[in-house]
Amino acid sequence: ERGAGRRGGARRTMATAAAAAAPGRARRGAPMYSKELTSKKRDEFEDILEERRLSSDLRYAMKCYTPVIYKGLSPCKPNAIKSAVLQSEQVQYVIKQLAKEMGESPDIIQEEATEILDEMGHRMQLGAVRFFAFTLSKIFKQLFQRVCVNEEGMQRLQHAIQEHPVVLLPSHRSYIDFLMLSYLLYTYDLALPVIAAGIGKYVFNYFLGMKIVGELLRRAGAFFMRRSFGGNRLYWAVFAEYVKTMLRSGYAPIEFFLEGTRSRTAKTLTPKFGLLSIVMEPFFKREVFDTYLVPISISYERILEESLYAYELLGVPKPKESTSGLLKARRILSDNFGTIHIYVGQPVSLRTLASGRINRCPYNLVPRHLPQKPSEDIQEFVSDVAYKMELLQIENMVLSPWVLVAAVLLQNLPAMEFELLIEKTLWLKGLTQTFGGFIEWPDNLCAKKAVLSGLTLHSNIARLVDGHVLLNDKAVEDGAVGEIVFGRALAVLMCATYRNQLLNVFVRPALVAVALQMTPSFRKEEVYSCFSFLRDVFSDEFIFFPGISLKDFEEGCFLLTKCDAIQTSQQEIYPTDKGSGTVSFLSAMFRPFVEGYQLIFRYLSKETKEAFTEKQFIPGVRNFVFQLLEKGSTQCYEALSSDMQKNALSAVVQLGAVKKKKM
């Protein structure tokens, strides 16, 4: 990425951007997403490991498995899918076009298409599925206390699979996600999904580099795609037709991750649109009557890769994966990772979403096999659907008491009295529920036990010493200054992973609170202008539905009014005496992002050259922040996170303070 303008350009642009900030281009019609601000009844959860602990895993794996499938069709074999793809009009058209352009024989291009399919395609076999059912039962019982799922969601999913093609859209926080839904659907006798396992670069390198695991995953329903194939027309045609053939035939539910890769911070990543656009195309072309999109929220009480993620965010390269390395990882089986909650959301009809919004007639004017660039309206629609699905995932994330503890603890470093931590955690529980957060807190569990339980489960992050709770960076207390900073940053980022799960519940009221503190007056217009600017700046940091800045502002004000933190009139917004603590807490919760971005913008305006690449930017800004931490000039350890650094750079590009050029 290349910069443009003089060094002061970024600083000057940022200083004036608040006044010029405006919501994005208005969407056609009413907004597709509208959050329910009234409390709703939550589905009950059932622990699927309970039965596994009481009966034979072998009997479970070898059970009679006869899932009900789409409209009673007989499942076709993977090879039949491949043949249909190779013989399809779309792939044959591209083969002929490429042969003509390159002066090659169509047979040679056809052979290349066959090789692409062999590299890409799944080879689902019931034997491999049974192997994973047995193995994962053993592993899950070792790793987790419970794996809980909402049964009503499974019933809704069963009905949807029989009626229409189904696309499963789970959140993505861990490698465990890859086979969790397959395990779940096998448990409930539902059709197993085919899983797009190569959206991000890591999956391709990770799984295909481990031949044994890669082959097992293929046989369990995984299909792989290359890291990048933007300019390869043949690869794109084969891949798109492969996915659409499986969707049209109702062969199996299709599963992929909208985020594209695992979130290293436990915040939802901005969505990728490519695969979503592909699965929508059969509906646009009237090849299917409807398609159901199912948002699925997978919440971890403790994330397996928490330590690995923190190291990655600090620039320590992750170890090269291999099958032997995977086997060495068996030591984690002696650890406890608490509970997983899986919330299967309400299936969303693509037909209903498109009604009154999308005109499908233009697709009828062009033969179906001809490649067609999506119109601006279609691209906007795909984007809106992606954000809607992610916001539905966020709504149904389950928060553990430890998430609240982490949020309080990070505002009271280096240590906090245990009794005060309990008091603040209980207060935050009430505020989270007022804001619509979904907390798993048993009725009979007192606050002290909840906090102690969290500290026990996360003893690698924090500990109780002499009536005080502090982060676990003790190992580097006697080291050099640089080692102390790195150790503390590691502890802060691991703790922040859990606090981050709370941020999407709080982001709108919190940005109103921050805007109130940054704005010199209480005039509603000025507070909104500042809120809108902050929302634009943090558009890659948090998930906001496009084009509804005013609606988000009104939601934030409504929630702050609901907890008596502010009062509003037609012209003004001002904090109440009672709500000053709430406004201060919310502002402090988001201070690492405000301060972190300020440090990164300071680096951009003072330290960078006229032009730079992202590979130069990340280590450069990391060294800049590291030096400030060593001097004691800042305490913002989260500014060392490569995730925040990339998001901040993206923000200044979108705001026009930095210009991006492809080289």
TrEMBL record:
Top class in the EC scheme: transferase
GO molecular function: glycerol-3-phosphate O-acyltransferase activity; glycerone-phosphate O-acyltransferase activity
Subcellular location: Peroxisome membrane
UniProt record, GO biological process: ether lipid biosynthetic process; fatty acid metabolic process; phospholipid biosynthetic process; triglyceride biosynthetic process
Pathway(s) of this molecule: Lipid metabolism; Membrane lipid metabolism; glycerophospholipid metabolism; Phospholipid metabolism
InterPro entries to which the protein is assigned, alphabetical: DHAPAT, GPAT/DHAPAT, GPAT/DHAPAT_C, GPAT/DHAPAT_LPLAT, Plipid/glycerol_acylTrfase
Residue stretches making up the Phospholipid/glycerol acyltransferase domain: 166-301
Catalyses which reaction(s): dihydroxyacetone phosphate + hexadecanoyl-CoA = 1-hexadecanoylglycerone 3-phosphate + CoA; dihydroxyacetone phosphate + an acyl-CoA = a 1-acylglycerone 3-phosphate + CoA
Main location: membrane
Database matches in Pfam families: Acyltransferase, GPAT_C
Mode of membrane association: Peripheral membrane protein
Keywords in alphabetical order: Acetylation, Acyltransferase, Membrane, Peroxisome, Phosphoprotein, Transferase
Region entry Disordered, spans: 1-35
Extent of Low complexity compositional bias: 11-32
Enzyme Commission number: 2.3.1.42
Gene Ontology cellular-component terms listed: mitochondrial membrane; peroxisomal membrane
Transmembrane segments: none
Similarity field: Belongs to the GPAT/DAPAT family.
Subunit structure comment from the entry: Part of a heterotrimeric complex composed of GNPAT, AGPS and a modified form of GNPAT.
Function: Dihydroxyacetonephosphate acyltransferase catalyzing the first step in the biosynthesis of plasmalogens, a subset of phospholipids that differ from other glycerolipids by having an alkyl chain attached through a vinyl ether linkage at the sn-1 position of the glycerol backbone, and which unique physical properties have an impact on various aspects of cell signaling and membrane biology.
Protein name: Dihydroxyacetone phosphate acyltransferase
Source organism per UniProt: Platysteira castanea
Recorded name of the encoding gene: Gnpat
